[in-house]
Amino acid sequence: MRLLVLGTAAGGGVPQWNCACPGCAAARADPARRRRHASLAVEADAGRWYVVNATPDIGEQIEECAALRPGPSGRATPVAGVILTDAELDHTLGLPRLREASSLRVAATGTVRAALSGGLRLDKVLGPYSGMSWTALPEKGLEALDDGPLEVQAIRVSGKRPRYAADLPGDAGDAWVVALLVRDRRDGGSVVYAPALAAWPDELDRALRDADCVFVDGTFWDDEEPRRTGISSKTSGEMGHLPITGPGGTLARMAALPAARRLYTHLNNTNPLVDPDDPGHRRLAAAGVEVARERAMIEL
Q1: Which candidate, 74, 73, 85, 71, places its Cα nearest to that of 40?
Q2: Which of 49, 13, 17 is nearest to 33 (CA)?
Q3: Nearest-CA neighbor of 222 among 273, 288, 277, 294?
Q4: Distance from first CA to last CA of the chain, Å, rounded?
Q5: What is the C-alpha separation between 180 and 53, in angstroms, rounded?
Q6: What is the torsional sign of CA 207, 213, 218, 221?
Q7: Which of 224, 202, 204, 219 is nearest to 292 (CA)?
Q8: Helix (H) or strand (E) holding 214
Q9: Rounded-to-integer distance, Cα 92 and Cα 113, Å
Q10: Kind and range of the H or E element at 58?
């Protein structure tokens, strides 16, 4: 299995268009510090890739990775479909950008599909452009994604719904936010992708301990970061993201995982880790953890 890191930023990217915080200002001055919205591409088999979360940057993300670009002629594309971990705008606004496809396969939980179809009416909007076919993400165990070698499972990690879905039917127990477990049946290699974590449930912990590579929510460095930087009156946990450090932080758990690669993704523009020279990177490295690098290819 091969993985392509397409982006590592939380909502708005780095820089965010309406923000002049130190992280955004530095990214404007140095394009090497720019980060696109968090996304990952997983190779199903030779020449076929699934993109995890369709971000507003999906067009640029595809163009920046040669493995995802179309062939020398025609409109054949290596992108076989999209897998969604939630219904947030930052992870779904890229779907309309894929409307040129003859058909678009989207895998999601029933809760996420209902939000996108009922709340955003994506089925109706995209129908005249591209035929959307939906695949239900299994939650009770690994199931084949298609006729290829990959098996997938969704693991519930939060009941936080997008703001636009506040009035939609359902309750907090629905599968609004999931972590994605992907396993290659050919060699047993597996990856867990969890860009938004409000909790660390036992089922997720078991999947993380068995995985060869893990990507975990690195939105905020500590719980007070949103309030300290003035972007919210809520703490990191209240915003639906476990912080990296401090009481209840994820770093100690990440350090204890046996995975060969342990990476943080989904960094907010206020997170000091958006600065490659921040001392926090050395603290991560001492624990065997790293921040995912954009456009990196990881082979399991």
Answers
A1: 85
A2: 13
A3: 273
A4: 6
A5: 11
A6: positive
A7: 219
A8: strand 213-217
A9: 11
A10: helix 58-63
Q: What are phi and psi of 66, to 5 degrees?
A: -55, -35
What DSSP element (H or E) covers 108?
A: strand 103-108
What number is the average pLDDT over the span 103-132?
90
Rounded CA separation 296/47 (Å): 17
Q: What's the domain range around 151?
A: 2-299
Sheet holding 143-144, edge to edge: 143-144, 150-158, 177-184, 190-194, 213-217, 261-265, 290-291
**pLDDT bracket for residue 292 (50, 70, 90):** very high
Q: What is the pTM of this model?
A: 0.97
Q: Is there a contact between 40 and 293 (Cβ–Cβ < 8 Å)?
A: no
How far does Cα 163 stand from its chain's mean position?
18
* CATH classification of the domain holding 259: 3.60.15.10
Per the listing, tokens 């009416």 go with: 121
Sequence letter at residue 219: T
**Residue 172 pLDDT exceeds 80:** no
**pLDDT tens, residue by residue, 188-246:** 999 999 999 999 999 999 999 999 999 999 999 999 999 999 999 999 999 999 999 99
Q: How many domains does the chain have?
A: 1
